[in-house]
Amino acid sequence: MRLTGARALVKSLEDEGVEVIFGIPGGVMLPVFDALYESRMRKVLTRHEQGAAHAADGYARVTGRVGVCMSTSGPGATNLVTGIANAYMDSVPMVAISGQVATNLIGTDAFQEADTTGITLPIAKHNYLVKDPADIPDVVQEAFYIAHTGRPGPVVIDLPVDVSRAELEYRRREHPVLRGYKPTVKGHKKQIRMAARAILESRSPVIYAGGGVITAGAEGELKKLAAGNKIFVAHTLMGKGAFPESHRLSLGMLGMHGTRCANYAICETDLIVAVGARFDDRITGKLSEFAPKARVIHIDIDPAEISKNVRAHIPIVGDCRQVLKELNAAIRELKDEVQSPDRREWDSLVMDWKEKYPLTYEKGPGLKPQYVVEKIHEITGGNAIICTEVGQNQMWAAQFYPMEKPRRFVSSGGLGTMGFGFPASIGAQLGRPGDLVFDIAGDGSFQMTMQELATAVLEGAPVKVAILNNGYLGMVRQWQQLFYNRTYSCSCLEREQESPDFVALAEAFGAKGIRVTDPDLVEAAIVEAIETDCPVLIDFRVEPEENVYPMVAPGAPLYDMIGDMLYPVEKIHPEKAEEPFL
Q1: What is the mean pLDDT of residues 235-249?
Q2: Same domain flag for 509 and 435
Q3: Rounded to an integer, what distance in angstroms lies between the CA atom of residue 84 and that of residue 79?
Q4: Which residues make Cβ contacts (< 8 Å) with residue 329, sequence separation at least 6?
Q5: Within a 10 A sphere around the Cβ of 64, how many other Cβ atoms?
Q6: Which residue blocks in 131-289 are alpha helix, DSSP H?
Q7: Are 522 and 371 in contact (CB under 8 A)?
Q8: CB-hemisphere CA count at 13 Å for 26?
């Protein structure tokens, strides 16, 4: 059939099964938005392109499908950049479609021209500048395939306006043809067998689970590996939900604001089984003192991550679910052949750490942010989808809202993007309309994308926003307190008066606003928000100088954790690498 480039783009998106598109139109994208008008796909008009990208990101994380966002050329495309970079760092499947000036104007500094492909080259898995309308069906098909296979990530399609107006004969291939792109799915059998033997021979193994477990849908095989072999599991921020946190073998989150038991266990383990994780600096702390006694099995679909930061003694490239399935089978085969050491002493030691150092906080007369998160968890039964902003609110959400299932914790990990959580919660709500969605926010982060309240209201997305309002850029203030002698330079968001009035702000957009200053009113406010069938913003006025503990200072080893009176600063010194523990 004969179609314009714009209509071919829309049909290609429909053929990919796209249900929702987030974006904002503009001059060079008018042909595309005209073609979208009668499409069955849902068009969500956000109030900023960054909001569109984050909403597509949140949608992708909770559904497992490719998120789609659109913008016009120039500033529209550059406004998508933060969201594209965020998706790239966290391996989220996304297709970002930007308009571009006509092909004959590219390079002339035309009105609203920007080199979108050049700008996004380092922060996208792949990108396209389409110059021939006949290429549109193939480009879209390839973009979606690249975005969701292998290590997922964002793909950018830059579409000049003259290409969208030109005509082509539409046809669709049965499968995309990409000669140089063949992600490795199955792991090397010999390496998997070596890993199985190492696990059986280990006296004090620990599984380190990252976001790749959730991306691959490998949580079932991970649980079999852990429970079947009595291996403790620590997870990253992105891996939250990969292993049920109520399980006896769960150590909780690892790293800078991880649990003491997780960090101590990593320092003392003789074998790390890293699955879908990348050993980033927030996890390892001081690299030279990271897990000095441990051999490392590293399972990841991206070969570039293997031994990038921490040397892998047994590297396995492949899809986490497929590799773990084969690893579990190999362990069953070798169990009669390999004599496993007694792990009772290790089990007793780790369980003692869990009991001795639980995540807690000092109770007091004021409203504590940790208490708010605990009450949200209690009232929702731990079944809500939790989105977070970035900063203290993010860490308190990770610490005090334990997760039992994957794809229910949505947070900006690698890029640490303030303003991410609220638009992501809108995307998550539209992707999972039957679920309860909470954005646990900070007053600083929320103000970066709060204009998306209009989007939530008009789209009927009944997200609940819990602002842990301390009047500061909280994590910045915490670092200034601990490392800059309490010099609170540009981290205080309020002066003589509260600004803004979040309740009035919510109501101005047509949402419901609630303010809470008394701990005794927290539960009632959360229940009211849940029972209200529209977006609700709860302004929790929490203790202004509450800190996130435990904390590993930048560049410090994991065993050296900062804490208050509830966290006595005790260190274990793993100087003698020949000793397996103690």
Answers
A1: 98
A2: yes
A3: 9
A4: none
A5: 15
A6: 136-148, 161-165, 189-201, 211-216, 219-229, 260-268, 281-284
A7: yes
A8: 26
Bridge partners (DSSP) of residue 208 are 234, 274
Tens-digit pLDDT profile for residues 367-389: 999 999 999 999 999 999 999 99
**Token digits of residue 218:** 């490998």
- Residue 189 has a pLDDT of 97
Tokens of 411: 């947070």
Pair 387, 237: CB distance under 8 Å? no
CATH of the domain at 305: 3.40.50.1220
Name 154's bridge partners: 94
Q: How far apart are CA 149 and CA 15, in angstroms?
A: 18
Neighbours of 175 (CB within 10 A): 7
CATH of the domain at 24: 3.40.50.970
Q: What is the pLDDT of residue 238?
A: 98
Q: What range does the domain containing 112 cover?
A: 2-169
> 556 and 571 in contact (C-beta within 8 Å)?
no
- Dig out the tokens for 406 from the structure: 């994957």
Judge whether 362 lies within some domain.
no
Query: Quick check: 8 and 136 in contact, CB under 8 A?
Result: yes
Residues 386 and 436: their CA atoms lie apart, in Å, by 9
Residue 44, both tokens? 């969500």
Residue 574 lies in a domain: no
Residues 6+ apart with CB under 8 A from 64: 217, 407
> For residues 534 and 457, is the Cβ–Cβ distance under 8 A?
yes
Cis peptide, bond prior to residue 205, ω within 30 of zero: no
Q: Is residue 196 part of a domain?
A: yes
Same structural domain, 147 and 282 = no
Residue among 164, 154, 17, 34 nearest 95 (CA): 154
d(CA 421, CA 411): 7
Strand partners, 513: 537
- Specify the 3-state DSSP secondary structure of 565: coil
**152 cis-preceded (ω within 30 degrees of 0):** no
Of 201, 198, 207, 195, residue with least CA distance to 262: 207
pLDDT digit string, tens, across residues 489-500: 999 998 667 789
Residue indicated by tokens 């309860």: 436
Alpha-carbon span 396 to 367, nearest angstrom? 14
Angstrom distance (rounded) from CA 216 to CA 149: 10
pTM of the predicted model as reported, rounded to 2 decimal places: 0.95
Closest to 449 measured CA to CA, from 478, 483, 424: 424
The answer to whether 86 and 58 have CB atoms below 8 angstroms apart is no
Q: Is 565 inside any structural domain? A: no
Return the CA Rg of the chain. 25
Cis peptide upstream of residue 358 (ω within 30 degrees of 0): no
What token pair was written down for 172? 């669709």
Partner residues linked to 67 by β-bridges: 94
pLDDT in tens, 458-510: 999 999 999 999 999 999 999 999 999 999 999 999 866 778 999 999 999 99
Q: Same domain for 257 and 115?
A: no
Q: Roughly how many angstroms between the first and final C-alpha of the chain, as a whole number?
A: 72
Whether 373 and 252 share a structural domain: no
| Overall domain count for the chain | 3
Candidates 92, 159, 77, 171; CA nearest to 125 is 92
